[in-house]
Amino acid sequence: MSVIFRNHVVTAGAGVKPMLFGHGFGCDQNMWRLVAPAFEADYLTVLFDHVGAGKSDLTAYDAGKYSSLEGYADDLVEIGRALGVSGGVFVGHSVSAMIGVLASLKAPEMFESLVLVGPSPRYVDAEGYHGGFTAAQIEELLASLADNHMGWSAAMAPAIMGNADRPELGEELTNSFCRTDPAIARQFARTTFTSDNRADLAKVTARTLILQCSDDIIAPEAVGAYVRDSIPGSEMKILEATGHCPNLSAPAEVIAAIRDFL
Amino acid sequence: MTGPAVEDLQDLYENAPCGYLSLGPDGRIVKSNRTLSSWLGIAPGDLIGKRLRDLLSIAGQIFYETHFAPLLRMQGFFDEVALDLVKADGQPLHVLANAAERRDAEGGLMFTRVTVFRATQRRRYERELVDATETAQAQSRLSQGQLLAEHEAAELREQFIAVLGHDLRNPLAAIDGGTNLLMREPQSEKSQRVIGLIRGSVLRMSGLIDNVMDFARGRLGGGLQLDRSSKLLAMTLEQVVGELQTSYPERQIELNLDVADEVVADHARLAQMFSNLLANAITHGATDQPVEVDALLDGGELRLSVANAGPPIPQEAMQQLFQPFYRFNPHSRVRGLGLGLYIASQIAKAHGGRLDVASDATETRFTFRMPLAEQPA
């Protein structure tokens, strides 16, 4: 089966140099719709959905393969190989930042530069490491997802109605964005929030930029600093944007920071 | 002059039947209403400056940041989102929330307005739905397991019956063959009588095995299967009479057959039923009186009856006669499984007919009636 179909890969842009964008836990490639178009003049932009999210092929979901981030990184490498990516740029948000790190270790020639937006190599605190969450808090999250009552009622299917204020958002997007199969979302949450890839950071050879939001509960500033200190030669840029999704809340700031870096 | 009462908008905001919350561009609370404060048990002043996520549990915060915050940014609104706010006392406040962004002419975010509705009952209902779904799924898995177990048990029984039939019939066939051989040679009168008794026992045992197998098959899989053919009924009946007469040469059997035409039926099954009825009449009836067999094709119906003299069957026993494993005289010297009449009635039923019994001081008569199908010309 084609990885292009499996991961709903969408390419655009007039450039030659490939620039891939990976979305985080909770949403799909639409996460990038305010950022990616800014690079279409100079790059070949590549958007995709992780298997289990968005318009990916849900039948390709394999609980065993995707029980670790390695499975997602293998997919990213396959996408890169299918498109002949070499010396490209990878922009990864949230968990996709670490997926990009792992992919760059598996295929060092593929990405010359990594942009990690809100990365975290480990969400759970450990001795000498501040991840931002206690193991009990992560367990509470996973249990409440398993419990299935948080947000899965009408919440995942926002009202089917036009959005007069934002006509650029078609009804299709309005209805599908952030909707996921609950069982897959639970497993993706477990894979994401129980991951520990701290040891992989030191092996990264690509040029790396860390975009750190202010006031991000998912990936606090201390975690961003840890990533910066662990990846040789990496630099960190603190954004004024708050929250965990600057690519949506402050796209201009994100675009400018990436441009500066590249 | 008093006009219609004018709504007090300030009061509507503060004491609305729902909670209001306004967030500034930085996501911090700039205004909230009294209703929400009282639900949360947090004074309005203490809410100012907090972020929406500060009112959520850690798990709720993660979910909010990864799902609803991007949804709000993408769409400019979200509707009917289930949130669990944390009250001042630490208890959850189950709510449904709608949110909408208010932007200025340049598209800059001014406020995010959130309306909150209590949804405790609804949450409980959803919780019950989820539980019910899980219970139903578990039960479905369980009953599938049971079905599988029953299927295996049924297969085992089928095998048991097949083995039973094979293993019991083979030695019986050997005994039958042996007595056949002996009968062709000159024997003393005493030997001949013994051979006759052996053959009677073989016949009875063969019938018992047939009954057991039929019973088991009938019970396990959709009743008796018929293999119909068109034959002269007289031949079928006379063969059965011949067999039993050989085994009970001292008994008198009166045959009144008015069945000149061929009958479409499973003749082997009819013979089995008739043999059961006739053997019953011979073994239970008065030994000094003849057994009477009447067969008649009349008005589109076959009537076959077997009658014997002797003490009548008690009224209370009549109800039970056709039940499996019923023996109305357990102390009878004639032992059986109590399946003969049950199977006879099943054969009658399979032919679209029925088996009845009438018993008084004069006689006990079993009558089989069966509608005749289109007979060949």
3D architecture notes:
The complex is a heterodimer of chains A (262) and B (377). Chain A is an alpha/beta fold. Helix content of chain A is 34%, strand content 16%. In chain A, strands 1-3-2-4-5-6-7 form a seven-stranded mixed sheet, with helices on both faces. Chain A starts with a helix and ends with a helix. The longest helix of chain B is centred in the middle third of the chain and has 64 residues, at 120-183. The relative contact order of chain B is 0.07. Chain B contains ten helices and twelve strands. In chain B, helix 6 (189-220) crosses helix 7 (233-247) and helix 7 runs parallel beside helix 8. Helix content of chain B is 48%, strand content 23%. Chain B has three domains: 4-118, PAS domain (Beta-Lactamase, 2-Layer Sandwich), CATH 3.30.450; 140-219; 229-371, Heat Shock Protein 90, CATH 3.30.565. Chain B starts with 8 loop residues before the first helix and ends in a 6-residue tail after the last strand. Classes of the chains: A alpha/beta (262), B alpha+beta (377).
Estimated structural class of chain A: alpha/beta
**Are there runs of chain A of 5+ residues with pLDDT below 50, and where?**
148-175
Largest sheet of chain B: 5 strands, antiparallel
Q: Compute the gyration radius of chain A: what is it?
A: 17 Å
Share of residues in helices of chain B: 40-55%
User: Could you report the average pLDDT of chain B, rounded to the nearest whole number?
Assistant: 84
Helices and strands of chain B, in order, run as HEEHHHEEEHHEHEEHEEHHEE
Largest sheet entry of chain A: 7 strands, mixed
Interface with most residues = A-B, 44 and 37 residues
- Spatial gap, N to C terminus of chain B: 106 Å
- Tell me the number of helical segments of chain A per DSSP (H or I, 4 or more residues long): 10
What is the name of the CATH class of the largest domain in chain B? Answer: Alpha Beta
**How many DSSP-defined strands of chain A?**
7
